[in-house]
C-alpha cells in the first residue's frame, strides 16, 4: 500500500513550510516515527516523522516551500529493507582505506633542486641584499630587472614591503539561501527598527550580593533539586517580574490605536540554537519560584539546542530578556521583540573599581540595557523600571527572597 505523507500544521497561523533538510534518501527504508526531514516554518524548525514503515519516495527538494497539507513523500508499506550486498562490510572498507593509505605513502616525493643563485631569478646583488635586509623584505618576493632576473640596487630601493595584498590565496565565496526561520527573524528585526520609536537606557548592577547568595546556596540548591543549577537568569527574571508589576506600561504592547496591558508576566528568554536565535517563553513567571524558573529555562534551552522547540513554546511573551554576556558582550542596545514593548539586555560581568561609601572598592559589575518603545513607554517608566531591576539585583535577600533564602530556594 502506498501512503501519502502530507505536511502537518505546525500552528494555526502557519500556511506553508520549507524543506530544510531531508534526513533520508529516495528509496531508503524508513521505520515508523523515524525523523525523515527537518522543516522550517517562520517560527521554528521541526522534525517530520515517518507515519509508517516502508520504502520512501521523496516528492519535494530541499529548499522547496510546501503548503501545509501538501504531499511531500510517498511510503510503500509493502517495501522491505534491502539486504547488504555481499562483500561490502565495515572490515572490507577499513582494509581498502588502509591500502589507499599505503599507496599514498609509496608515492615518491621529488625534491626541487635549489636555484643555482649565479645571478639568476630572485638573486640580489650584494648592495641590493643589504637594502632588502634593512627593509625586512625577502628577495623571493622581488622580480629583478637585471640580467637573468638579477635583483639590482634600484630594484631594492624601489621595493615596497608587502601590506598583505592577496597573492594567490583562497578567495572563494558561497551563496546560501537563508532558512525560512532566519528570514522571518530578519523581517521582524527590521520591522522593529522601522515601526517602533525604539530608545535604549542603561544602568549598571553590582553583582556582589547575588554572587554572595549563589556561592552560599548553589550547592545545596543543586543537590536538592535534582541537578538544576542556581543561575543568574532566575534572579534577573524575578527582578524583571517585580519591576513589571511596579511599571505595568513596560508590560504592555501597541495594537493599532489601542494599548493592551497584561496582568501576567510571560517572559521570553532569548537563547541561541543550531538554527539561530530562539525566544521560548516562561509562562506566568511572576508566580514561579527560583527552582521553577531555572527548571523551565533549562527545559526550553535543551529543546532549542536539540531542535525540538515548538511554535507553542515561542508563542506569546510580554517582555524579553537576552543575555549577550555569555558571548562576552560588555554593552549593547538590544532590539525589541515585536509586538512587545521592552527588552532587557544582560552583559558580561567585569571586576571594576567603584566608589562605595566614599572609598574605592573592586566589585563584579554588569551593564544592563533596556530598549523600549517610546510610543507607549515614557522616560519615567523606562528609567524607573530599570532602576527597580537594579535595586532588586543589588538587594536580592530582601526584595527577591523576602529575607528568607532557604524558603525562597526551597531548601
Description:
It contains eleven helices and 19 strands. By secondary structure, it is α+β, with helices and mostly antiparallel strands. The radius of gyration is 31 Å and the shape is extended. The chain starts with a strand and ends with a helix. Mean pLDDT is 85; it is low at 103-120.
CATH architecture label name of the largest domain: 2-Layer Sandwich
* Helix/strand structural class: alpha+beta
Just give the CATH class of the largest domain: Alpha Beta
Beta-strand fraction estimate: 15-25%
Secondary structure elements and pairings:
Layout: E1 2-6, E2 16-22, E3 29-30, E4 35-40, E5 45-49, E6 54-58, E7 65-67, E8 71-76, H1 90-106, H2 126-135, H3 153-158, H4 180-195, E9 198-206, H5 208-224, H6 232-246, E10 252-255, E11 258-261, E12 267-269, E13 271-273, E14 276-278, E15 281-282, H7 290-305, H8 311-314, E16 319-323, E17 342-346, E18 349-356, E19 359-373, H9 379-394, H10 396-399, H11 405-408
Parallel strand pairs: 12-16, 16-17
Antiparallel strand pairs: 1-8, 2-4, 2-7, 3-6, 4-5, 6-8, 9-19, 10-11, 12-15, 13-14, 17-19, 18-19
Helix pairs in contact: 6-7, 6-9
What would a concise description of this structure say?
The protein is an alpha+beta fold.
List its salient traits:
single chain; 411 residues; alpha+beta; OB fold (Dihydrolipoamide Acetyltransferase, E2P); Chloramphenicol Acetyltransferase; seven-stranded mixed β-sheet; four-stranded antiparallel β-sheet; 30% helix; extended
Amino acid at each position: 500500500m502506498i501512503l501519502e505523507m502530507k505536511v502537518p500544521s505546525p500552528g494555526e497561523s502557519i500556511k506553508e513550510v520549507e524543506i530544510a533538510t531531508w534526513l533520508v534518501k529516495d528509496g531508503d527504508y524508513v521505520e515508523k516515527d523515524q525523523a525523515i526531514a527537518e522543516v522550517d516554518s517562520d517560527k521554528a524548525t521541526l522534525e517530520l516523522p515517518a507515519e509508517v514503515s516502508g520504502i520512501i519516495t521523496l516528492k519535494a527538494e530541499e529548499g522547496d516551500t510546501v503548503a501545509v497539507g501538501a504531499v511531500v513523500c510517498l511510503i510503500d508499506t509493502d517495501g522491505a529493507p534491502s539486504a547488504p550486498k555481499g562483500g561490502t562490510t565495515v572490515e572490507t572498507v577499513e582494509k581498502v582505506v588502509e591500502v589507499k593509505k599505503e599507496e599514498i605513502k609509496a608515492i615518491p616525493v621529488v625534491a626541487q633542486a635549489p636555484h643555482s643563485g649565479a645571478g639568476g631569478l630572485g638573486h640580489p646583488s650584494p648592495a641590493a641584499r643589504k637594502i632588502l635586509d634593512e627593509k625586512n623584505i625577502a628577495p623571493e618576493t622581488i622580480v629583478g630587472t637585471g640580467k637573468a632576473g638579477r635583483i639590482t640596487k634600484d630594484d631594492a630601493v624601489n621595493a615596497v614591503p608587502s601590506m598583505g595584498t592577496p597573492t594567490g590565496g583562497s578567495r572563494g565565496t558561497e551563496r546560501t539561501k537563508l532558512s525560512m526561520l532566519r528570514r522571518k527573524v530578519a523581517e521582524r528585526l527590521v520591522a522593529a527598527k522601522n515601526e517602533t520609536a525604539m530608545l535604549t537606557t542603561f544602568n549598571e548592577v553590582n553583582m556582589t550580593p547575588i554572587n554572595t547568595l549563589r556561592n552560599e546556596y548553589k550547592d545545596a540548591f543543586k543537590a536538592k533539586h535534582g541537578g538544576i543549577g542556581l543561575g543568574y537568569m532566575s534572579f534577573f527574571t524575578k527582578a524583571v517580574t517585580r519591576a513589571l508589576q511596579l511599571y505595568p506600561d513596560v508590560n504592555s504592547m501597541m495594537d493599532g490605536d489601542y494599548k493592551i496591558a497584561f496582568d501576567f508576566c510571560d517572559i521570553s528568554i532569548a537563547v541561541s540554537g543550531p538554527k539561530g536565535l530562539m525566544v521560548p517563553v516562561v509562562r506566568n513567571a511572576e508566580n514561579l519560584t527560583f527552582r521553577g524558573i531555572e527548571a523551565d529555562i533549562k527545559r526550553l534551552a535543551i529543546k532549542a539546542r536539540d531542535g525540538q522547540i515548538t511554535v507553542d513554546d515561542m508563542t506569546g511573551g510580554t517582555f524579553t530578556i537576552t543575555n549577550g554576556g555569555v558571548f562576552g558582550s560588555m554593552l549593547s542596545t538590544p532590539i525589541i521583540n515585536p509586538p512587545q514593548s521592552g527588552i532587557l539586555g544582560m552583559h558580561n560581568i567585569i571586576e571594576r573599581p567603584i566608589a562605595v561609601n566614599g572609598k574605592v572598592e573592586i566589585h563584579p559589575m554588569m551593564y544592563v540595557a533596556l530598549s523600549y518603545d517610546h510610543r507607549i513607554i515614557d522616560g519615567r517608566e523606562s528609567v524607573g523600571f530599570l532602576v527597580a531591576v537594579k535595586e532588586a539585583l543589588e538587594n536580592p535577600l530582601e526584595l527577591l527572597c523576602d529575607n528568607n533564602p532557604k524558603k525562597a530556594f526551597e531548601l
